[in-house]
Batch of 4 targets.
Target 1
Amino acid sequence: MNPIYAVVWGVVALFGVTAVYGLVWAIRSGQMRDFGRGALSIFDDEEPVGMVTDAFPGGQTADGETGDRS
Amino acid sequence: MNRAVFLYVGVLLTVLLSFTGLVSIPEKQLGGLQPLVDADGTQYPVPPTGMVAEGRGVYIADGCIYCHSQQVRPEGFGDDIERGWGTRRTVARDHIYDSPPLLGTMRTGPDLANIAVRQPSENWHLLHLYNPRITSPGSNMPAFPFLFRKVPVEVQVPHDALSFPPGWEVPGYSVVPSRRAKALVAYLKSLDHSHPVPEVPQ
Amino acid sequence: MNAATSSDAAPAAAWRAEVDASCAYPVVAFFVSAVFWLLFGTVLALLASIKMHTPGFLSGAEWLTFGRVRPVHLNTMIYGWGSMAGVGTLLWLQARLSRVRLPLQLPLVVGCALWDLGVAGGSIAILTGHGTSVEWLEFPYGWSFLFAGIFVVVMAASLMMFSARRVGHVYVSQWYLFGAVLWFPFLYVMANALIHGALARGVVQAATNWWFAHNVLGLWFTPIGLATVYYLLPKVLGRPIHSYYLSLLGFWTLALFYNWAGTHHLVGGPLPAWLITVGIVGSVMMFIPVTTVAVNHHMTMKGHFALLKVSPTLRFIVLGAMSYTVVSFQGSLQSLRTVNEVTHFTHYTIAHAHLGVYGFFTMVMFGAIYYIAPRLTGREWSSPRLIKIHFWGTALGMAVYWIGLTWGGILQGLAMDNPDVAFLDVVRHTMPYLWSRTFAGVLMAVGHVAFAILVWRMFTLKGRRLPEPASAPVVAMAGGAQ
């Protein structure tokens, strides 16, 4: 038998194992129960909603004005 | 069970599914295709051997595929047949011995599926490779001078030197194709997909 | 405001600085390598472009012939620039979103060095005549084992972070990253085994080839690019994504449809009609995920376009997200047989591919590096002027490139489908457009050089120190939140 089949089926098995592991872990840890608040999960008290977190160096805008720095 | 089942299995299955659909099933359907054998015993297609196989290697190494396709589209789809690039569309059976198949996706230059039929002259091909502008004015194909060597005429005029049309001679030298140039031309002269196949009704 | 963070012991800024710091060495290694390959690939791109209209240019040496330079350009851009910038961004995003330190730092740095060797070795192999002429898989078979091996480390690091996450919710970007990191190795190993390992034969190799090549864009670059946009767009703006539901719908429809699209590269070819039709259906169905992404991004940006003047990151990712919309609709349309009949085999396809890999993915990666790098070094970018040169050079370059080759490609296709036009006349008609590409390439190259200078100064710590370590310049916007 062509040894390449071993590689192909090995990869398929690896994927299978990874998926099953992920699945078991996901069920146990009770994932995906709070879809609603998901969009806010990347913000926190020190980078809250309403804070712009990127600017040209020196806090300048493209026109050369200096923005307020917090 | 909750949504996580759907998510994890889904991520994996989506790609396995397309693998099955686009790769495994075609392999099952097309992998068993056999060559045709005519009444007189000649086989079509034949596996590339000798100089043809060597030339196929040059074709691959120098990337001809990036400007030349090797496939004739069906009648009524594009004008491949009207352009004289073939007498019939090409089919899967034409490529059963091609690994990898050199179908190509670009036609900066013309299709080569039937170049052997269109251009049977060996000298034409050699001149064209040495400098495409000799045979095809305005062509943007690269020249392949490194597939040739120049021999001063006072040393000898080799029997396989190129014969140039007037005005293109290299003064004082004759130009001799290398083995790789000859192999590439042997390969080009093997590209003939005009043999009738049952898949395309005459 | 958020249960997950308020329960954390450390203040938010402190853990963020710690997570960013843990990424420093591997991510900097991947970014610096990526920028090196970007410059290398740019040189090859210019060479190839010039050779198209001036075939005598450097034509005496075999290793510089068009058919070798072009695949090296593609492979250094895909596996060098794109994938390495993508992996760097992916690692940082996973660490940030999971709020854990980056694991496997040493193996990742070693992996990055080996990856560089792989791209260099593969490129030399192609230039010396050992390329395979299988598009997007030109590196000889042996190199694929190296990349697959390194990928195991990237995959492991990614899964370790994912499973050690300290956040209750799996953010939409993580789904995309999770998909990318699982899909790509599978695609890569399978395609190599089937084609270079000659498991499949004849035209099945061609089907496998385009299943793979299209999925490199669809299931590797696209999810990394979209994951980046879904994180950075709301982060930079300081407003949550417009519709979280749409973003997840977009993920699943992308996963379902994109990987079927590849065979549209073989319309009219010697393959069974059903196989091509599947590819066309998959391509047309892509209207759904693309529309969800376009609507979502536009609605998130709405009313905040003025910030494009403030934030370099925002400029690049918004341009990238817009290109994604255009390139995807274009892709769906050009898979249709009537359109494909004209555009297939022409420069139109090249313009389309660049709008995807460059206009979308590369622009998003530029934006990501502008955001991430200061947070790794604690330094500011050294020059607003160079950032502007970078932006306008690449943006205008891409526009000229796309318009020129799209238009030229349509004319080329129409002429080629008309048997009364001699083939050499078709070639002549395309010449002005091939020149326009070289012009566009020079604009992009100027942008890339500006970017490389900035990156060099950033990582040799030439920029001004940021006020707080590892935190970025922050502009408070009155009324930014709505």
Target 2
Amino acid sequence: MSVTPAEPAVQQQSKPRVERDQVVIRFAGDSGDGMQVAGMQFTNESAIAGNDLSTLPDFPAEIRAPAGTLAGVSGFQVNFASHEIFTPGDDLDALVAMNPAALRMNLGDLKPNGILIVDREQFNELNLRKAGYDSNPLTDGSLAKYQLYPIDITKLTALTLRDTNLPARTVNRCKNFFALGLVSWLFQRPIEPTQKWIASRFQKRPELAEANQRVLQAGYHFGETSELFASSFEVKPARLAPGTYRNITGNSALALGLVVAAHKADRPLFLGSYPITPASDILHELAALKEFDVYTFQAEDEIAGIGAALGAAFGGAIAVTTTSGPGMCLKAETINLAVSVELPLVICDIQRGGPSTGLPTKTEQADLLMALYGRNSESPVVVLAPATPADCFSIALEAVSIAVKYMTPVIILSDGYLANGAEPWRLPNLEELPEIRVEFRTDPTGYYPYLRDPVTFSRPWVIPGTPGLEHRIGGLEKEHVTGNVSYAPVNHEQMVRVRARKIAGIAREIPPTRVQGPSEGDVVVLGWGSTYGPIEAAVRKAQAGGKAVAHVHLRHLNPLPSDLGEVLRRFRKVLVPEMNLGQLVKVIRSEYLVDAVGLNKIQGLPFKEAEILRRIEQMLEG
Amino acid sequence: MSVAGGALKLSRKDFVTDQDVRWCPGCGDYAILAQVQKVMPELGIPRENIVFISGIGCSSRFPYYMNTYGFHSIHGRAPAIASGLKMTRPELSVWVVTGDGDGLSIGGNHLIHILRRNVDVKILLFNNRIYGLTKGQYSPTSEQGKITKSTPYGSADYPFNPIAVALGAQATFVARSIDVEAKHLQETLLRAYHHKGTAFIEILQNCNIFNDGAFAPLTDKETKNDAQLVLEHGKPLVFGKDRNKGIQLRDGKLQVVELDSEVTQEQLLVHDETDIGLAFLLSQLAAPEFPTPVGVFRAVTRPTYEDIVQGQIQEAKKRRPTDLETLLRQGDLWTVS
């Protein structure tokens, strides 16, 4: 490492500290301003500080939209607390706005009297015009209801680095670390994790490492020494379950889960994929893990990605494909082939706003019906959904385990919010994770390709290279047991039914439905996937108000838990919040004849706790 | 089947399945199946290590009739499936059977990409210049103006030249053979097997129901010697019933010349399988002006895709610890007690 970490600045405190139990902060700026980096580093600092946390990165699809425009605004929100939290937070306690466009796009979320830090110099005529301001909000009194801190971030960054030979453009790009340093002081975050990160990130560019370190510290010391801030804030560590923690995003957790699952199955991992937002990071992560017997294949298209994965599954690998909505459309035919040939395959759909290209970088959960039904004919597959970023790790293990035991495709429905959002993750004890049993049949006696296990209805997995068991599989209908091509009418119905029964039978693997709250009452809020956080937060608030409200969160969307209908019927009303027009609610109504109602938000953003709580209260009144 | 003295003794019969072959009587596919089944025992590898993968179409029924491992997949996707299998199981001998529609229309993208990657898969493209299984629509290799059910006014499409497509995709082995040329087809199949890398063989195949006689001049006893130009590495390009015609390169263009006292074999173009420029020129030769070349257009070596991938995995294993604990513990950690 080329840079010596600075003295921990924390010890030089002299200003008073005000204790808070929770803070929601958002960094917002131009997409070239490094707000994602600032947000991520602030998250790491908060994790090391022992807080529970939840993040919401929100960035445009354009790599570099025109500077200073509303379209180019990128944001990163962090909620950190001394207690358990479930969401990135509804409203902001603090907002850092690096330019007028960032202010305009984000101010609406800042609480009255919230802390507002802006880079004063950026509020020039040109930028104000680009953001659509007629007058300068910093001086026209329109920000009077906030604690406004106009700071010359650009100038102070330049001053810090005036003795270097770095070009002005490079100097300017360091200013996110000034903002980060300042905010780190304001909320008493340790900056060592960021110092370490800078040192490793710029290992090959020591002059940049040095510059960013200095700017970070300058920002931190500015907070301490300038007269602007009378005090700093402190958020004590949260009481999390004992263990070793790290911070993790959903995509990272999914990648690691797949590696561990393949290891537990003692098979190589094969990922066939095509770059697509917001799933590509899984491909990136796995591509760097070849030493774990991980094959990654960046295919010519989405279809080849899943096709290669199915070929690898035929050969005995733990096969995975990763994609998002548009890619799912293209993969449908191959998923169906996997249904027909009954080979194990894991399909990760990191959902984003649609239809078509839609909102590539924004979250949505509107691929549920496609996952359940979006293929020709009767095509049952297993569908699972993780609830939080860290949960993506365990869902990967479960998906692989079901796929190989039942010889079936398994779809994992993550989404952009889980994929890029982060939370503390308690590291699992690898020894305690269950082994995944993979058995390749090698005994030719009495072998038929579609001879089924009497309990699971699973067919044997026989891989090429096994003597005496040469056989052919394919997408044509096949005869029960022998697997020979068959067009016989009764056989077809039997095969359709047996494929359906095989998947339905997986319900035996699902533990009894967990009801958070009373087991009967007025309202049960039923969710799936990434709405877990805001639903849990809202339900807890309602419960704290003495209401008979419960939360049930589905991890298994096909098959559904066998006790679900019974659980739902114990409540007077069923509310299903979804980031779509009402997809799970359709399934629930048709499956159980329960009069469930939807709460739907399709804005490319997760629910706020308050939005769900309001609906619960309405239902309690009605 | 018997294994004696460590050497594998298989016969053609060992590669025949119990399934009834369901191609139309008289289909060229029967002849191709017979040659493939004849060649398989000569590979000297056990049946269980051979995999045939196909897409959709008449040709793609092929795996059902081969007593090896087989995968009859979906339209056009066999190269993708084969790539995933070969990458992870390089010890297997993987063959793809496809057609002009499957391989050049719906699966054209996968075909060119497997060729450029040089995955060690043998691709047999049965070209009958028609859609047979869907009952007679024009294909991407049908001649322009072709009258079919879907082109009653004649096809407006200009056809693909499969050899030129393969060469354009930087394939390392490109050949053409004919369904009824038993010996030539067997030799070409064997050469493809022994080539390390993707081997592409266009097999001209007669569909006697929907496009009968498409290659008649090339297969009729009377005309075939004048219509075929058999390519042999290092040998001059001579053809004709009386071996009295040849191909010369003049002013950058190929020309047919009569051999006589003025023009001798020594003045003819000599075939060189390593010269992609020559291969491309030869790929353009077509009736009626020229004979149709058959044989190996190109054979060069380049590292295979799976060797590179396997090499990276082995290298990574040597250089980095494969400890899952360490992997999970990346980044900043903190402990709650």
Target 3
Amino acid sequence: MQPVLEIKNLRKSFGAELVIDDLSLTVPVHTATVLIGASGSGKSTLLRCINLLESIDDGIIKIDGVEISDPEIDPDEVRRKLGMIFQSFNLFPHLTVRENIALSPIKVHHKTKEEAFEISNQLLKRFDLLDKAEQYPDRLSGGQQQRVAIIRSLAVNPRLLLLDEVTSALDPVLVNEVLSIVRDLKSDGMTMVLATHEMGFATQVADQVCYLESGTIIERGTPNEVIGNPSNPKTKDFIKRVHQAGRL
Amino acid sequence: MARKSSWSPSSRELERRATKARISKRQISIAAISSIIVIGALLIATITSPGWEVVKKTFFDVDYGKEVLPTVIKGLWLNLKLTVIGSICIGIIALSLAILRTTKSAALTPFRFLAAAYTDIFRGVPLLLVILLVGFGVPALQLRAITSNVTILGSIAVILTYSAYVSEVIRSGILSIHPSQKAAARSLGLSSAQTMRFVVLPQALRRVIPPLLNDFVSLLKDTGLVSILGVIDAIRAAQINSSRTFNYTPYVVAAILFLLITIPLTRYTDKAIRGTYSRQNAEGTI
């Protein structure tokens, strides 16, 4: 079956600094790919390239077999199929929770206000946030804000969800409430690419784990292979350091 | 690491660059063609209009324009002087008013009230009226200590009004900075005043540079209003010449001189703002 995301020989540099170096990656439908690696290894940049937030220097990115790295493609059209969740939530502070969720369904996907609010309410109810629908984001806890951000990107039924260290700004208790949503999405069959530092979580949800260093995938495989029993010395070293930091 | 130096663009990348070049070429030609059509149409409509010959003689008389240029420039010099001196005074007064109105200190409450009343009044009264009231009203008091120089009185009126405008612009900039910035600064041990000086104001002022520039350009033009007190600025100089000869070219000369100052100024500021903005925001190309 055709993969949802296919990346071939991607290259991206910021000026003289090479951030992604000849990287290839395939993400089949209904699977979760977890990117691990130290900060600055290129995980976030990779996600931003997929979402066309960054222009690339070389290589090919395909979504559902269509090359989105084609200069003639409409980036809005591409992003309509993608959901992206940021480390810093990026909720719109001037809109209530429900309005945040309903914005794209109404303005981009031409739903009526009633339909969009209905979708919002269903999602909020499912993830236990219905009582916050009328609140403004600044009033919510970090975990609640991030859950709203996830719901906001779900409201438009994305083909592929990109999650960029979604729990890095949260305390350990709140981390769980966010991760449990991601686990739910995984069991719903959502196709996802996640950058994370949560190795335990990565082991649970990942079908494929990729270890990045200096912008290339050094090792890839199942969680048991890459996180449980890495073969590359660089990966081994990274996993060892994560162990020492008590994050596994 | 060897790969870094050995990399050369793939055939797909070369193809993509060619496409990008083609797209940008196409956009440039679309821009050029539409500009030529629009500007051409405007030119033709103007030149072929029945009154064009008369308009050309009374508004665009080049020789007469050259003749009056020195007097108009001399008038413009006054506009410039008033603008520079005025904007310094306005900056100081407006900044003080804005800070005063955004502080919460209880001791300053009466001053806050006065500052609010001041902005309400001077923002609401037409500049022309303020100039007339100050320019003719103050000398009528016959106070010895106060000057009766109309240029100075006129500039004071302009400063009073513009300080009210500008203080509101700066105040809205201060209010637009997220409270979390203040929280972070106070948590670092900065005092309320230090927080304002080193954290809030630098961000707020940068944010309001475009509207401030707008006010600066208006100020340059509005300094001309002091001419109703008898001072000769660029517009008044042009007017005197026009009414002598019934030729309106001096007005066009004055307009061009104003544009020669304001356009480079706005372009330069725009560029400077964009520079700082992109340095501070690493987030992507959208």
Target 4
Amino acid sequence: MSDEIRKVSKTALNKCFWYWAFFAHACYNYERLQGTGFLHSMCPIIDDLYDKDDKEGRAAAMTRHAAFFNTEPRVGTAIIGLTAAMEERIASGEEGLAETVTSVKTGLMGPLAGIGDTLMQAILAPLLLSIAIGIGEGGNVMGPVLYFAAFIAIVIVLHRLFFNIGYNQGDEGIAQLLESGAINKVIVGAGIMGCTVMGALAANYVKLDAMVVIPLTTGEFNLQENFFNAIMPRILPLGLTLLVWWLMDKKGVSSTKMLVFIVVIGAVLGAIGII
Amino acid sequence: MSIFQALLCGICYYMSAGTWLVGVGFYTFGRALIQGFFTGLILGDPITGTMVGCTIQLIYLGVMSTGGSFPADQALAGIMGTAAAITAGLSAEEAIAIAVPIGLLGTVLYNFRMVTATAFVHMADKYAAEGNTRGIWYANVVFPQVALFLIYAIPCTLACYYGAPALAGIVDSLAGSNAIRVIGVIGGMLPVIGIAMNMKAIFKGEARLFFFIGFLMVVYLDFNMVAVSLFALLMALVYVNLKGDGAEKALAFAEEDDDDE
């Protein structure tokens, strides 16, 4: 990095960061998804780099960031930081960069969304919710309250972390992050935590009991108590969980279809008194 | 429920898609648990609200919304289920009978919002061509959020005010019948959806073993969720440390996906 590159002010950089954190999804829509959110986050950078009278420069910069954009907003903040740094170089007169910035953006948004969605939606949210449900199921309001506070704190930290990686280390920094084992280790470890907690949830909250009682000459045979519980308590919820997972993951049954199946099967078996 | 309370519920629903909480309305007000708590708070019973919210949340635990998709609206399900439960004294399982259909209906509002917001994209294009950065405030935040507020808050307010008592009345009229027992049976099974949906994303490779460890921790050791989570954290650390750099190969998250669809 030569010292000819014009740096934006700290205020502009902070504004860029917070605009993205708050407004990435403010105008979420089917045509550009986060496109206008991306453009909005670049506005403080553009204001800082281009004079008020430089209408052409501003319009060119704004138009190139109005395009379709979609990623996971937290991990994807790396792209915001990176683009801010690239805009500095473009405004300093680096040739050809204005044309490549869009392909850099679109090239990174997919891989970062993959990591981000796994971290946020497959791991962090279900994990924290499971703990919150464990605390709150009996009516303890600390369950939802702690979840709420913890999530916002974690999100701000993640935003800042990835923004700094993008701005300070550039696309090489992001590529390194994608290739190094660090993120994979976090995902693997968190996946193990998630699996353990899902197993506990299945045992705690999936309820399925056989109601069949067969009268015998020596008393009665209760299918649930004398058979299933003798093998392992809650073996039916375990079987149901694995079956539903298998149907959804391996057979491609959608969650909405699965929901309808369970309602229908539950209604039929429940009505005739088997469960 | 007074119209003022219904309006507050409507505002909470707007917050699930609104942009004001560092952009994480989706993870906070967008969760059935949080909406259960707030609806309870608005109606003066946050304890019941939390309990109902927990029950409804389980169904939507593993919902993933990626690339603009939105499979179910757990925020509206949480609000309506809790409102009906508190105003009519339904149990958490009975509230599920109301929450689940509402969760499917709510996605209509999401789609409507995603389509109408495209109008503001063209407004943003116009400001961009003029180099007008101030205009983007209107095109990205002010107008889309006003539109979102109207699209979300008004239907939810009306549904809470008129719909919740009516729906609760239907469920209440079944009291003591076999239908209520069956609703309870179904409600007991439905958390399997939320769990299986999350398993779809993480139940892979050697991590599968830990699912059974978690299950047995509850069945035989009677651990609560906090205890399970702490042990899970330690087991994960031990596993990753022992595996070292081979950890990601051992699970091979990406490669395992090839048998999907």
